[in-house]
Structure formats: C-alpha cells, structure tokens
Amino acid sequence: MSNVEYLPKHHQRYSLRELPSAAKKTLKGFLDTFIHLLSIQKKPLPAAKDLPYDDKCPPSLDSEQAKLCKDIFDQTQKRADKIQGKAEKYSGFIPVVLSLALGTLSIVIREPGLPNSYRSVCIWVACLGCTALLLAFFGCLRCLRVQTVDEPYVGAVIDTDKHEVRKFDSAFIPFSYLSCALRNGAQIDEMADYLRATEFLFFIGVVTIIVGSLPLLFLIKPSEPKTPQVAIQNVEEIKAAISEGFTANLALLNSLDARMRLLEAHKTLAPARPHKKTPAPHACDCSRESK
C-alpha cells in the first residue's frame, strides 16, 4: 500500500448537470444567512447532555488529557480572534467603498450628457449596492457584538452555591476548560454566520457598483475648456450709446481746454505787483531803546 491512499482527495468539480443544484444550494445558504442576520435571536438553549463529571466521584485524567483540554479551549479562542479580526477589517473597508459609491452616484446625477435611461438604471443599481453595503456593515456590528469571553473564573476555585473553597480535583479544571470551549464554540458559530452574511453582502455591493459604474468610462467625455461667449443684442442701441458718450466726453474736453486758455491769457495781461521791503532797524534807535 502506498501513502497516497491515506491522503484526502481534492475537491471535485461540479458537472454541467450538477450546476443548477449547486446554485440552488448556494442561494438557499445565502437566504438562510440573510434571514439569520436580520432576525432577532433568543437566548441559547442548554445542551441536551452535560459533561460526564461528578463531584462525588470525579474521573481520573492524566496530564496529557488535561493538556489536551486546555489546547481545545485555546483553539476556540484563536478561532474567535480570527473571526473578530476579519469583522474589524470589513468594518473599515465598507465605509470607504460606500463613500466611493455615493461619489459615483453624485457624478451620475449631475452629469448632463448621460442618457436618461442609463441614468435611471445606474441610480437603481447604486441604491442596491449601497443597501447591500449598509447591511454588510450591520452584519459586522452584530458579529462584533457577540461575547465569547467564557473561561474558568472564580467558580473554578470557590463553590458559589455552598460558599466554600473547592477541594483540589485534577479533573475539575480540564472539564471546566471543555465546558467553556463548548459554550464558546456555539457563540463562535453564530459569529461565523454573521461574518458569512457580511461577506456575501459585501461581494454583492461591490459587484453591483462596479458593473453599474463601468459604462461611465465610455459615456462621459472629457470636457474641453470653452472660451466665454457673450451674446450681443441690439447693436444699434449700443453704437448710439457709445457715440453719445464720445460726444459728451469731447465737449467736456473742449470746455476744459477753453478754461485753460482763459487762465493763461489772464496771467499774461495782469501786471506784476511790486514786493514791499521792510526797512531794517537803525543802529541809533537800538541804542536809544537800550538806554
């Protein structure tokens, strides 16, 4: 026997006859996740069976089994962290894509050269894409809202019912890790459903927006700079107003020229007035005044 027989086989492709059934399954799964996203959830029901643990007769576990229980708990926590990390990334991507979609929608509404048929279709497609993105963001919020922090706490040391410290039991801590892992697993499955719905809606929103905005590359033509053109009306009235203004300015210039000539003639005809000189004080007078 060769080692190849122990390896798992690759995924088999669907044939053409099986494609309709595969599409139906995919559509049904999407509808289930979409309904689960919008529905109001009740409190989870308790498990049908509890773990086989009894305080009076605790089972015996060796160190390897106890370590395995702790590893199972750690694996559930890692899975929860991965799902929360994906949800946080989607919550950051979705607003960016939504803002781009709204910008494209504003261009479609304001562009005057687009045909009305394409404008109406593009508006409906953009509204569908924006709605899908908003629902995807809502799925991210519901995914992040699920609380999965369930781990051994005070009850692992103190019996809250009896208000006593528990006796040391090597099997109680591993079983508490297993019970926490099981409860976290149910909550993580709910988070995975919300994240799956978010991925579906995000894909639908992005595809619809891209398909709706691709024709804009061919319909919108680059606008050329246009020189401002002023429509001139009533040319005869404009000419008459210009001529009237010109004659008025000419008359004003003639009047100013005549006044300047009169001033120059008046200066030439008027005699020059002699300047009176004040006599200097005499020396004798100064001596008399000093005396």
User: What's the shape?
Assistant: elongated
Compute the average pLDDT: 76
Low-pLDDT segments: 283-291
Strand content: under 5%
Number of strand segments: 2
Output the strand order for the largest sheet: 1-2
Distance between the termini: 157 Å
Q: Tell me the structural class.
A: mainly alpha
For the sheet with most strands, the description reads: 2 strands, antiparallel
What Rg, in angstroms, do the CA atoms define?
A: 48 Å
The string of secondary-structure elements, in order, is: HHHEEHHHH
Which percent range fits the helix content? Answer: 55-70%
How many distinct helices?
A: 7
Could you characterize what this model shows?
With 291 residues, the protein is mainly alpha-helical. It has a domain at 83-213. It contains seven helices and two strands. The protein has a two-stranded antiparallel ribbon with strand order 1-2. The chain is elongated.
Name its key features:
single chain, 291 residues, two-stranded antiparallel sheet, 2 strands, disordered C terminus
Topology:
Layout (H helix, E strand, L loop, with lengths): L18 H20 L24 H48 L5 H30 L12 E2 L4 E2 L6 H42 L2 H4 L15 H35 L13 H8 L1
Antiparallel strand pairs: 1-2
Question: Briefly, what is this?
Answer:
With 291 residues, the protein is mostly helical.
